[in-house]
Amino acid sequence: MVFSSGSFLFLFLPALLAVYFLIPKKCRELRNMVFLLFSLVFYSYGGWRLLPIILTSILVNYLFGRLLEPERGGRRKPVLALAVLSNLSLLFWFKYAGFFTANLHGVFQTVPVIEVALPIGISFYTFQGISYVVDVYRGQAPAEKNLLRVALYIAMFPQLLAGPIVRYNTIAREIGAREESLEDFSSGIIRFLFGLAKKMLIANQMAVIADAAFGTANGDLTTGLAWLGVIAYTAQIYFDFSGYSDMVLGLGRMFGFHLLENFNYPYISKSITEFWRRWHISLSTWFRDYLYIPLGGNRVSRKKQIRNLLIVWGLTGFWHGAAWNFLLWGLFYALLLMGERYLWGGILARLPKPLQHVYALLFIMLGWLIFRATDLTQIVAYIGALFGFGGAGFWSGQVTYLILQYRWELIVAVLASIPLRDKLKGYLEAQQHRRIPALLLYWGVPILAGVLGVLSGLQMLGSSFQPFIYFQF
Fold first, then answer.
1. Lowest-confidence pick of 40-54, 249-263, 368-382
2. What per-residue string of b and e applies to 133-166 under the rule 16 or more CB within 10 Å gives b?
3. Which of 32, 314, 339, 387 is the most buried (most CB within 10 A)?
4. Rounded to whole angstroms, how far apart are CA atoms 382 and 210?
């Protein structure tokens, strides 16, 4: 089940709202139970066979959390190692067993290829489980004695399938004693509708262009189509994932949860370092706190810093998928980040800001090319086409058609990628003592959200099913 589907919008969500808010506020545990049960139904919508996997993750992390309570004393480090290993073993079996056995089979024919269906969201809730047991070990989060609350933390449906990755200490209080309000509920609906519009009105339209470009045979790709395709995919993945995150934050707010932002206009970055402070913030923060810093971070020699960056970004890439192009994508960013830190960072900082933006966007788009491509052959051929070495020419009628057909979506994508909305909101807030700005501030946003919601609904009825990109990770 996805947020941009009729089954969610017209069946699941209304049913949850009706049952949840019929329960009095003072019955917090009962509301939590309802929220958890609906979350498990949401997760198992694609098949009840998935349910034992997440229930195992919940139970394992709950038990290890109790064993890692600081007051227990004793040798807790081996227990922590076992807890992390248990989580990673679950992730490895379902996500990577097939990849490794397939590659081994290519060398040793006697090795059987293991085929295991990938449970949706396992990368996200496994990382949440690891962060929980590590934070309990460090004394940064309470060892929760209530199994229901640990289950709700791991299985909470808004962020279950594609994040953001939430740390327990940021949400523990609200699980036990949150305060739902009409103000939060209304702002949550608005945030949800804006996220839905990002997905239905921008991301799905950009997907048509990107699929046309990346689906073209290597020798038939013109330079114009190659650039249009990589630009479209750059927009698609941002509006798809940030739209999902907006819906997550909106749904959380409707039920009294205040989750942290996961995106901060990443395409206005002036460097790759800045880009990763703005893109998928919860993931980059997770790798920093639970891998990079424990490896020594920046406190070690330059040689070890380079080692740490290669390990972290290699694993970041591999976390996204069991394929060589994802590993290459991670190492691509490792090299860029090392370059900015040790080689050309000072030169970059002295360039005019427009050139810094061009530099960042160029490498961001090259990164998305590697991410989107199916194999190394396509990566090489696509890069060749970008720079005029594809052999199919510079332009084609297909490029003209796609630009004209999706011109408004392309323009909106560019405008929505920059903090234009924030600047307008800031201006209206500064002028709210005047009548028209006050009306626009308090009524314009809800009306716009409603209009976008209607347009998204119409688009949903007339389009085929397109799941969120990050669901596959």
1. 40-54
2. bbbbbeeebbbbeeebbbbbbbbbbbbbbbbbbb
3. 32
4. 12
User: What's the distance, Cα to Cα, between the start and end of the chain in Å?
Assistant: 16
Give the residue, 73 or 283, on which the prediction is more confident.
Answer: 283
Q: Which of 105, 258, 320, 433 is catalytic?
A: 320
Whole-model pTM: value is 0.93
Cis upstream peptide for 24 (omega within 30°): no
Rounded to 5 degrees, what angle do the CA atoms 130, 131, 133 make? 65
Residue 59 has pLDDT above 80, yes or no: yes
Is position 320 annotated as part of the catalytic site? yes
Give CA–CA dist 245/264, Å, rounded: 11
Check whether 42 has a pLDDT greater than 80: yes
Q: Is the pLDDT of residue 463 over 80?
A: no
Tokens 């920059």 belong to 418
Sign of CA dihedral 339, 343, 345, 351: negative
Residue 467's nearest CA partner among 235, 252, 199 is: 199
277 contacts: CB under 8 Å, gap ≥ 6: 264, 269, 284
Q: Residue 5 gets which letter from DSSP?
A: S
Per-residue pLDDT at 443: 85
Q: Which two tokens stand for residue 357?
A: 């933006």
What's the mean pLDDT in 245-274? 95
Write down the H helix ranges in 44-179: 51-67, 77-107, 122-138, 147-155, 157-160, 172-177
At 7, the pLDDT band (50, 70, 90 cuts) reads confident
